[in-house]
Amino acid sequence: MPGPMPDTPGHLLCFGLGFSARVIAARLRQAGWRVTGTSRDADGCDEGAAKGFAMVPFDGAQASDALVQAVADADHILVSVPPSADGDPVHAVLGQAIAAAPRLGWFGYLSTTGPYGDRQGSWVDEDTPPAPSTDRGRRRLDAETVWLEMCRDKGLPVHIFRLAGIYGPGRNQLLGLAAGRGRRIVKPGQVFSRVHVDDIASVVIASMARPRPGAVYNVCDDEAAPPQDVVAYAAGLLDMEPPAAVAFEDADLSPMARSFYAENKRVRNTLIKTELGVDLAYPTYREGLTALLSTIKRD
To answer: Distance between the two ends of the chain, CA-based, in angstroms?
Structure first.
């Protein structure tokens, strides 16, 4: 079982409907929830509306009357937009309105494991002091901090979710291999933690059912693994030979891709199981990729 569900449907306001947030919102809507989403542009609003969500624009700089009203109407708010160099745009524009929202019983922030920084392959859990080693990680920690300060100072019911590397339908190693773009990059000792998007939804929704303001949760599967092992397993599922191994030093990577290899850690997920009662549907990449195999179109 994925985890508990709230007893009665509510109204979720979701800032940003990205890869993870769409799955969370869709699952709640199927359970009878009202879901309002935001998008930066008209195309995004149209796309969300086509999926059955009420949509309001939010460009990160100012809030319309309709968005202010949505904040006041919501009993659950989820922020899934990333911070910029100037900070968290939702906090900057609507932080005070959110803190004063009369019906709000739960607030969630989708972060990353970036605040832990590089741990040279060692384990981290929610009690590990943050030590971000990249600008992205520092921005995430800053965003977490301003929301947690509002929890402490204003009673905002904040819950932080530190997500590992996300995969799922439309975003996985099988797709790259099937399209002939797969790469097997090897950096000795390097591991990454991962999580299937369906398990992210289970964790976030379980938190709504069992709120604990001020909580921080690591959201990942049970096995941090070398990236080349994941590629090789995916190739086996596709009955392909895995791509030739390429040393990290010789790989032609973008600065963004290369920066991910600068952090090496194993993320522990005990708390989402013991406190939230979540039983992961995909405890390792093997179960996740095997389930995704049916979504891959091949010649």
So the answer is: 35
d(Cα 275, Cα 217) in Å, to the nearest integer?
10
Structure tokens at 208: 């709504």
Task: Tell me if residue 165 falls in helix, strand or coil.
Answer: strand
Specify the 3-state DSSP secondary structure of 132: coil
DSSP 3-state assignment of 64?
Answer: coil
Angle between helices 65-73 and 89-99 (to 10 degrees): 50
Residue with tokens 């059955």: 52
- What is the per-residue pLDDT across 225-249, written as a single tens digit (0 to 9) for each? 999 999 999 999 999 999 999 999 9
Closest CA to 197 of 79, 76, 291, 90: 291
- Taking the domains of the chain in order of start, what are their residue ranges? 11-166+195-221+265-281
pLDDT at 298 over 70: no
Measured CA to CA, the distance from residue 21 to residue 80 in angstroms comes to: 7
CATH class of 11-166+195-221+265-281: alpha beta
Please give the DSSP secondary-structure letter assigned to residue 75. S
